[in-house]
Amino acid sequence: MPRRLILWDIDGTLLTTGPVGRLALEVGASRAAGLDEVPYVAMSGKTDPMIVRELLTLAGLSPGDVDRMLPVALTEAQHLLAAETDRIRAEGTVHPGVRELLAALMDVDGVRQSLLTGNVAPNALVKVRAFGLDRYLDPDVGAYGTDHPERDGLVPIALERSEARRGERYLPDEVWVIGDTVRDLSCARAGGVRCLIVGTGHEGFDAVRDLDADAMFENLADTDLALKLLLGG
Predict the structure, then answer these.
(1) Taking 70 as the threshold, does the pLDDT of residue 147 lie above it?
(2) Are residues 141 and 188 in the same domain?
(3) pLDDT at position 1 over 80
(4) Which pLDDT score is estimated for 202?
(5) How many domains is the chain built from?
């Protein structure tokens, strides 16, 4: 049987939280810095620390104040998101085919699934638990915005944790990053592993269809096709 480490992005790939994911980061930054208005920033594919740093910088804070406020803002955002599980369920959704593919992969010996996401770890867990997706995942070997402010630094962290915590070493062609943005592809390339890009992100399939990923699906509705790709040679 094949050995695989499947590293899932969350937002735009597994699910959407609706507006509350963005609001938690914006309100966290606002509360930490006492802002009356928070500038708009594009968030897709970025880590939570990168997003909050950009929010605070565009709001006019000095680099020193940004460094000081960043952990406060992230903590505020974590508390806000943790209190909004019901809203995430009501306004968010799991993307087509995701639950079926997670379940099918969980039943394959030699496959481990985890998270590779720009979310800080507490936010990541709130989101997947809101929809019961955590049952399919081993979050302890994942990599998060908590671990590195740049997404390109995350794959080596997940590989190191897989070895240290589960005694599993994976060859580059045994690892897949599944994501929905160019930043997911970039981090897979930086880590020397394979990448499946899906078109379920905020900007849709047209925004990613021309990326040079190892595979490209509009969505994950065809479970058999996705399994053939991920488990094949």
Answers:
(1) yes
(2) yes
(3) no
(4) 86
(5) 2
